[in-house]
Design brief:
227 residues; mainly alpha; molybdenum
Length: 227
């Protein structure tokens, strides 16, 4: 298998697992913050949005310090379980998930906040638990916004470069994602290879964005019909 398809499959794998992480992490954070009021709520919201504006290389440096064997977490994982995350595809997945987090969290929070609270209050008076209210009312009514955010997050994770390079490096066949492979091809002066990989990356991202826009337009039409 040539370097293009190997890098493409690795990028899809990293973006897929990063999206799965954000399905649970970003959705839980969005629901929790949309349904609670506490001191520091806006500060936490800003912290969760930070990866959207912070340079990816800075995020990558933070992750490198956090996951490296010299840190408490990195030393614990290595000495207890023999796990070394740095320079692995798992580290690339963590970096991609962190960078894509705001693109999932923001739409998910907006979707949960758009759910009519009277539906949840009515369910509460009927004796439903908080988990049942989430599963049977909040999530089904907010799923389009969450899915749209997940698609945007997938596209962002698929194209992630700076943070991934910092924590996973560029090991061909192991951590060299499509974005990093494009950079390596340009550095080596292999324009034909770079062009083919750029075309593939563009097709994947455009396809994902078209799907996200279709979902968003469907949501808009549905809201207009309801009104």
């Amino acid at each position: 298998m040539n370097i293009t398809w190997t890098a493409l499959l690795l990028s899809l794998k990293v973006a897929g697992f990063a999206t799965l992480i954000n399905l649970f992490a970003a959705t839980a954070l969005a629901y929790g913050i949309s349904r609670s009021r506490f001191w520091g709520r806006e500060l936490l919201d800003s912290m969760l949005s930070l990866p959207m504006v912070m340079p990816p290389t800075v995020l990558g440096y933070y992750l490198l310090v956090l996951l490296g064997k010299k840190s408490g977490l990195g030393r614990f994982l290595y000495e207890t379980f023999g796990i070394q995350l740095i320079f692995t595809w798992q580290a690339a997945t963590i970096a991609a998930a962190v960078v894509a987090l705001p693109l999932v969290y923001k739409p998910a929070r907006a979707a949960f906040e758009s759910v009519n609270p009277q539906f949840e209050q009515a369910a509460q008076t009927m004796g439903l638990s908080s988990w049942a209210i989430f599963c049977r009312i909040s999530f089904p009514l907010a799923w389009r916004g969450i899915l749209g955010g997940l698609l945007l997050g997938f596209a962002r994770a698929f194209g992630e470069f700076g943070a991934t390079l910092m924590v996973a490096g560029s090991i061909a066949g192991q951590t060299q994602t499509l974005s990093i492979a494009i950079y390596e091809a340009v550095q080596a002066g292999d324009d034909a290879l770079a062009n083919s990989m750029v075309l593939i990356a563009s097709i994947v991202c455009i396809g994902v964005l078209l799907l996200a826009n279709r979902l968003a337009s469907g949501h808009t039409v549905r809201r207009a019909t309801v009104k």
